[in-house]
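User: Please predict the structure of the protein below. I'd like the answer in structure-token form so I can feed it into my own downstream comparison script.

Assistant: Understood. Taking the following sequence of 234 residues as input:
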Amino acid sequence: MLNILLLSSSSYKETGYLTHAKNLIENFLEECDVKQDPILFIPYAGVRRTNEEYEKKVKESLNKENIISIHHSNNPQEAISKAKVILVGGGNTFMLLYKLYKYDLLNCLTQRIKEGACYIGWSAGSNIAGKSIKTTNDMPIIMPKSFDALNLFPHQINPHFISGKIQGHNGESREERLEEFLIANPKETIYAIPEGSALRIKDDKIKILGHNSVLKFEYPMKSTTLNLDQEYLY
């Protein structure tokens, strides 16, 4: 059984860090019947803050003292194997995946979530739940062993999705970048999650939560709108 919540980002408009996500996370934990269980936090995507700083920020923002960062554990694999709830924060996707490979945690993380542990991620933490990180928006500041990710959700994820050209930006739009990926990988599918929105995945179904619809891109470049509060087979 899969129980997964993938948020586009840690913030939405001017609401503050994780403020928009609190109710989504609370409802998700209630559905999973693990509201009071310890939450194992993986801070490896953080680059400009220490593990301690990241843990403290997430605890304070979500008002949950039961969040415990994996960096406190002498045996991270064991910590994952015993976790009922796993929370993976955003930052740099390449750094996150690099460290998961470095500490040999990717496979045990996948296995534990498939066994029933609830998974919550945002930004980079959402991106790694998909098939690979090839549709991340992040700069490749470090080279992971592979671009292959958790593959819990067997498609590509593009968080922080913004449609159209940004004023004053002369590079490619997000749609153009995703089209490039599909030309190179025509059998793949991309789920583009705008800010303030999330995918709620339960087994082989997804539900769109939050503030904005999600776009599903396929080759040749075409999009399907997935509406809020609607459930879809993926």
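That's the full token string. The helical segments are 22-31, 51-62, 76-82, 93-102, 106-115, 124-127, 174-184.
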